[in-house]
User: Which sequence fits this backbone?
């Protein structure tokens, strides 16, 4: 191997390693975005299944007291998407919103990406009700799902770096 060949090989290797180092943050943010979108979809499906099967956390039932109607509210499971985290909760207060002091928190998940947009814009809480088994999205107490047009379909937009991913909720809890 001559000196020129060795210089060419070293140059090619340094160019490839530079390209790898430069593209790493883009790949990492893309993976964070895919991971967070999958996490939110899994939490939404978990909430839906808990509501449909009326899975009531024991702690929530104890907190609700002996009245069957209050215990039944523990079967209404919601997902609240806040800046940087997703909370799975039992809507034990019955207000169809996430109230940390009143509702029972089942689990909390930290996101690596940010929720850049929610439609409807001011509301990021999705509640699955056990009776009747359905998904309902509430804004100031009014049902906004099922939507009358595609523009009104509840959705979340996740953003990591310059990349975005949208999650849509259709009637009956179908997640796209």
Assistant:
């Amino acid at each position: 191997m001559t000196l020129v060949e060795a210089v060419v090989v070293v140059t090619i290797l340094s160019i490839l390693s530079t390209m790898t180092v430069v593209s790493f943050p883009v790949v990492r943010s893309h993976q964070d975005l895919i991971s967070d979108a999958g996490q939110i979809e899994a939490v939404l499906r978990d909430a839906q299944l808990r509501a449909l099967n009326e899975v009531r956390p024991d702690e929530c039932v104890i907190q609700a007291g002996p009245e069957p109607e209050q215990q039944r509210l523990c079967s209404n499971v919601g997902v609240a998407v806040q800046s940087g985290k997703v909370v799975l909760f039992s809507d034990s207060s019955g207000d169809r919103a996430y109230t940390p002091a009143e509702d029972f928190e089942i689990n909390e998940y930290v996101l690596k990406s940010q929720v850049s947009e929610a439609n409807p814009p001011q509301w990021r809480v999705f509640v699955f009700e056990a009776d009747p088994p359905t998904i309902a999205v509430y804004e100031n107490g009014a049902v906004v799902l099922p939507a009358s047009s595609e523009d009104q379909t509840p959705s979340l937009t996740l953003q990591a770096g310059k990349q975005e991913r949208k999650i849509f909720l259709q009637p009956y809890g179908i997640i796209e």
Remarks:
- The two ends are 56 Å apart (CA to CA).
- Strands lie at 77-82, 85-90, 104-110, 114-119, 125-129, 134-139, 142-143, 155-160, 163-168.
